[in-house]
Specification:
By secondary structure, this protein is mainly beta. It is built from 1 helix and 5 strands, in the order H-E-E-E-E-E. The protein has one domain (8-63): N-terminal domain of TfIIb, CATH 2.20.25. One of its GO terms (cellular component) is cytosol.
Length: 65
């Protein structure tokens, strides 16, 4: 049994390719490794990654200044 490849923030690179903002525009997300967050390229929200799990809830996101 092989382990899946891990990318930034311990996430599978294939998962990172398909993750999108949960808001209505569904824009792709980029990684901010230093902050441990996924960033929306459209609405400027930052979604936390906790224990290798992206928390893509609008109520949990913060607006970046």
């Amino acid at each position: 049994m092989t382990t899946p490849p891990t990318g930034p923030l311990g996430l599978d690179p294939a998962l990172l390719e398909i993750l999108a903002c949960p808001d209505t525009h569904h824009s792709p997300l980029t990684v901010d490794e230093a902050a441990g967050e996924l960033l929306c390229t459209t609405c400027d929200r930052a979604f936390p990654v906790r224990d290798g799990i992206p928390v893509l809830l609008l109520d949990e996101a913060r607006h970046r200044a």
